[in-house]
Design goal:
The chain is an alpha+beta fold. The protein is built from 14 helices and 25 strands. The strands form 5 sheets. It has a 7-stranded antiparallel beta sheet with strand order 19-20-21-22-25-23-24. α10 crosses α11. The longest helix has 25 residues. It is globular, with a radius of gyration of 27 Å. The chain starts with 5 loop residues before the first strand and ends in a 16-residue tail after the last helix. The relative contact order is 0.08. The C terminus is likely disordered.
């Protein structure tokens, strides 16, 4: 699409009642980001109440019409997704503006490849709009969904605001003046409300001409009658989170085991594990709305009442087929249905089985087929090859979910974000305990594949040649492992952890993996980078198959104030509780290697980190931890997968947490003054 153009959604797809809008951008520095927001507007071009403003502190509409789904990895960078259930939009809402903003003085001109995409309920991409002239603005309206002649349409806008979120919210009628007029913002006000209350009015900053129906209505004069304001909804509700430390047990001895709602010890066969895992997961999804909605929203399902079923018989060919489960969501009298196929204990999905379910779903008018297994899906690469009949108008979306992702979502809710009911929190805790039980078979990605040993041997004896397909298989397994490490770390921290995708501009996932496979053949190393939400730097993970060691490192900038020696001493003090074998390397602005050493040696002599060259200036420091690499391809104690996961966890726990903390300030000691 081009700026200002519009299109009727029903003309693009029959599944346009539920759509997903994705906002994407690429940061050349790898650190740029933005926050998405949605404003639901009435016929006057204003929000009806402040509750019609959806952002990260108010991510879900009460009626289910809007839900901020968060970021997902894309070909380049990430895509921030927003789910819209157009069938649930109230009649008083005529337009929904989709925007994004940056803070801290950052502008969109610093980002590249600003795009907005729209997909239908089946996951099929319908349109794409690229913004090439963002300029020095801190907020951009990417596009809008609006009603016209009984149809929903999408317009490509690309309009910038120099005053960021404040100007955007003010122009569309969000009430931001009451707190500012009465002094400091109250304690329960959100950070965005406080920021907006202190900001000036909006200024159009790009010189881009506004579209006629994108201009908000003029503000009422100050002497005009002001209607009574409705109470602003609180964005933080009372929720239940479970403590990390368990209470003291009343057991008489350590051999006693807690009674569990979902026991796993009696499972004997793979069929038993698959049946139990499916029933456990689907039952918790139906009973805990927060959890069920969290999973189904990613598949394009509407927000509504969820019911789940197992062991369902459906006719197909010469005999009935029995999918492992069925999920149905009801919204406004309409049903969204997905068939579920599960695998546990490392068993692979069978293409012919998934194909049969896709055919059944297409004939019966179901919306999706969801597969669950320990494997992790890769971008641009499907786990099973399913063919679609182009002659059928009804299209079925194929989605995959890893057991590691299910565990991550459960952790995020019960340990960090909380749920609204203590019983729901207990159910999620029981689900998480079941998934983590050694006998459940739901342990996530746990095998580097048959190519792992031949590739390691080929690197050892220098016989692995570029273009060897086995090297590409290892690279794909490595990417799956890194994605699972991100899920595990994110669940523990309560923050998003995503892999950083670097490569040649415009390169797709396949081309990027081929380049990594050639690098593996030439250097014998597997490399990846992880970005933790809220952290400025990245974690670099490198597995050297020649030396048999895993390295996890991060780079931090040098302090801007104080002498070089003062900065070095301050760094060593901040790492007082870090492991003694932590490697510290000085980075100099000339690009040449600086002095390095272990923390054990540097603690008594921090000055050893100072560069010796004349005029050399310290640009930063690189911190690294090394550990031995497991030789096995599996997830056993001595396996490669376990060694990489342990290395990342140890580095974050013992190094990164010390860097996140602000250095303690010394309190001046006052001399006691004798009483007169």
């Amino acid at each position: 699409m081009t700026k200002g153009s519009n299109v009727v959604l029903s003309a693009l797809s029959e599944n346009a009642g539920s759509v997903i809008v994705g906002l994407g951008w690429l940061s050349p520095s790898g650190e740029g980001d933005a926050d998405v927001s949605v404003l639901a507007l009435g016929s006057d071009g204003k929000v009806r109440t402040d509750a019609d403003f959806y952002f990260y502190n108010n991510p879900v509409a009460a009626d289910g019409s809007v839900q901020l789904l968060g970021k997902a990895p894309a070909d380049r960078g990430d895509t921030d997704r927003i789910g819209f259930d157009l069938t649930a939009v109230p009649g008083g809402v005529q337009r929904m503006v989709v925007a994004a903003s940056r803070d801290g003085g950052a502008c969109f001109g610093e980002l590249e490849d600003l795009t907005v995409t729209l997909s239908d309920g089946a996951g099929e991409a319908l349109l794409r709009f690229a913004i090439a002239d963002a300029g020095a603005v801190s907020a951009v309206v990417f596009g809008e969904l609006y009603r016209h002649a009984g149809e929903w349409k999408f317009r490509a806008v690309g309009q910038g605001y120099a005053d960021g979120l404040a100007g955007l919210a003010t122009d569309f009628g969000v009430d931001i003046d009451d707190d500012a007029a009465n002094g400091p913002a109250p304690e329960d006000a959100t950070a965005v409300e406080q920021e907006v209350a202190a900001a000036p009015a909006a200024v159009l900053g790009t010189g881009v001409e506004r579209l006629p129906d994108a201009v908000p209505s003029p503000r009422a004069p100050q002497d005009a009658a002001v209607p009574a304001r409705t109470a602003r909804p609180r964005t933080a509700r009372r929720k239940t989170t479970l403590p990390r430390v368990a209470r003291k047990s009343l057991a008489e001895n350590e051999s006693w085991r807690d009674a569990r709602l979902f026991p796993a010890s009696a499972l004997k066969s793979d069929r038993d594990r698959e049946t139990r895992a499916t029933s456990v997961l689907l039952s918790v999804m139906a009973q805990v709305p927060e959890f069920g909605r969290r999973l189904t929203a990613a598949f394009g399902a509407p927000a509504g009442r969820i019911e789940t079923f197992t062991e369902v018989f459906l006719p197909h060919g010469n005999g009935p087929r029995r999918p492992d489960g069925v999920i149905r969501v009801e919204r406004a009298g309409k049903l969204w249905t997905a068939l579920v196929e599960t695998k546990t204990n490392g068993n692979a999905l069978r293409a012919e089985q998934v194909q049969a379910y896709a055919d059944i779903a297409a004939r019966r008018g179901y919306e999706a087929v969801i597969t669950l297994s320990n494997d992790v899906a890769l971008e641009g690469s499907s786990l099973v090859d399913v063919k679609t009949d182009g002659r059928r108008k009804h299209k079925v979306a194929l989605w995959h979910l890893s057991w590691a992702e299910v565990a991550c979502q459960a952790q995020m809710l019960i340990r960090h974000e909380g749920v609204g009911n203590p019983a729901h929190a207990w159910l999620l805790q029981e689900l998480l305990h079941y998934l983590q039980h050694e006998n459940s078979g739901c342990h996530g990605f746990q095998n580097m594949g048959p190519a792992w040993v031949p590739v390691r041997n080929g690197i050892d004896d220098e016989t692995l040649c570029p273009g060897d397909p086995r090297a590409l298989e290892v690279v794909e397994s490595w990417e799956r492992l890194i994605r699972q490490v991100c899920l595990g770390l994110g669940g523990e921290l309560g923050r998003k952890v995503l892999p950083v995708q670097r490569g040649k501009r415009g390169a797709g996932p396949g081309e990027r993996r081929s380049a990594q496979a050639d690098q593996l053949c030439a250097q014998g190393r597997l490399q990846a980078e992880l970005r933790i939400e809220g952290n400025t730097g990245v974690l670099a993970v490198s597995a050297d198959l020649r030396t048999g060691r895993v390295r996890v490192s991060t780079e931090i900038p040098a302090p801007e104030q104080g002498s070089a020696l003062t900065g070095v001493k301050r760094l060593v003090r901040r790492l007082a509780d870090a492991p003694a074998d932590l490697h510290v390397e000085t980075l100099v602005d000339s690009g040449a290697g600086g002095p390095r050493g272990t923390l054990e040696r540097l603690r008594p002599e921090p000055a050893d980190l100072l560069p010796t060259g004349d005029g050399a200036r310290i640009a930063g420091f690189r911190l690294s931890l090394l550990r031995g690499m497991g030789s096995g391809r599996g997830n056993a104690e001595s396996g490669f997968i376990r060694s990489v996961d342990d290395a990342v966890q140890r580095f974050h726990t013992h190094v990164v947490v010390h860097l996140d903390r602000a250095p303690a300030r010394r309190t001046p000691v006052r001399e006691a003054v004798p009483a007169r």
